[in-house]
Amino acid sequence: MTKLLIHQIYYSDQTRAMLDPGFAALDNSTNARPDWREYWPIRRHLMAGSPDKDALVGYFSPRFGRKTGLDSAAVHTFVERAAADAEVVLFSPFFDQIAAYWNIFENGISHHPGSQETFRAAVARIMPGATLEALTMDSRNTVFCNFFLAKPRFWREWLRLNEMLYAIAESGQGALAAGLNAPARYAGGDVPVKVFMMERIASLMLATDPAWKVVVHDPLRCPLDALFAPFRRELVCLDALKIAATVRPSAEYRAVYRDIRRQIADRSKADFEVRRKQEPEAGTSSD
User: Fold this and answer.
1) pLDDT digits (tens, 9 = 90+) for 242-263
2) Phi, psi (rounded to 5 degrees) for 148
3) Residue ranges of the alpha helices (H) in the chain?
4) Mapping DSSP to helix (H, G, I), strand (E, B) and coil, where does residue 75 land?
5) Taken in order 56, 60, 63, 67, is the CA torsion positive or negative?
6) Strands 148-150, 56-60: parallel, antiparallel or unpaired by DSSP?
7) How far apart are CA 217 and CA 229, in angstroms?
8) 3-state DSSP call for residue 57?
9) Which residues, in sequence order, are CB contacts of 160 under 8 Å at separation 6+?
10) CA separation, residue 107 to residues 9, 66, 119, 196, 279 (Å)
């Protein structure tokens, strides 16, 4: 059997109550560096010891089950049946976000205005030669929420790249440090751009090095955002076009991709407006 070392991070009694008992609890209740979010407890744990080289290691948030619809039993079963020989196993949710953007950096730029130049500079610093425009990412190599398992060899490289950015951000010196530490819009309050960059390192590694042996839990089996549910077939086409463009780069693939994405955007906006108009005006409820 494959050895799994899956940790689930908690920050408080409330988040501890959300944990799956089939995962190992990772205590971050002191939350000494909230500005780094998940990177802080993951970093500390990776630096504290070296796990078995053949183990698959993971660090999940308390919302893993809610976002993926999976529990620890499902994770273990999937690995044993389909991913026993993998170096990296992905459990990414948000297929709509995977499909609707050419890569995870375009996704980040859309959701976190002002992050583009920092993403660009950070990628150039840690992976010279890679550019945001040239990166094609699809369901085979896109990681959301750090929901992945990997052998220690992958984690060591992940940590090395992140530590380069960590050192820059902590120094507070220069334009890249300022950009990494700058606030970006996020639900519930602003979060430093460095957090969103850190969450994209695994995807960057996989997209630039196809030698990693990756197995993917089908993201279409995870909950789909209600706004995009009517466009499931179109999203599948978008993902397929990106996969095709990776195998054989073609300007026509990208042009068709843009056309389908534009159609989804136009239709989803119209649907949103219809629903908004059907909602009662503020102050008319009986509450």
Assistant:
1) 999 999 999 999 999 999 999 9
2) -150, 155
3) 13-16, 39-48, 64-68, 72-82, 95-99, 104-111, 116-126, 152-171, 174-181, 193-198, 201-208, 232-247, 251-278
4) helix
5) negative
6) antiparallel
7) 19
8) strand
9) none
10) 25, 21, 11, 11, 29
The dihedral through the CA atoms of 269, 273, 274, 279 has a sign that is: positive
pTM of this structure: 0.91
Beta bridge partner(s), residue 90:
148, 216
Are 19 and 27 in contact by the 8 Å Cβ rule? The answer is: no
The separation between the first and the last C-alpha atoms of the chain, rounded to the nearest angstrom, is 55
The answer to whether 11 and 28 are in contact (CB under 8 A) is yes
Spatial contact of 215 and 83, defined as CB atoms under 8 Å apart: yes
Q: Is 120 helix (H, G, I), strand (E, B) or coil?
A: helix
Is residue 143 within 8 A of residue 219, CB to CB? The reply is no
pLDDT tens digits, one per residue of 50-85: 888 899 999 999 999 999 999 999 999 999 999 989
What the block records as the tokens of 207 is: 């997209």
How far apart are alpha carbons 186 and 190 in whole angstroms? Answer: 5
Are 102 and 257 contacting, i.e. CB atoms less than 8 angstroms apart?
Answer: yes
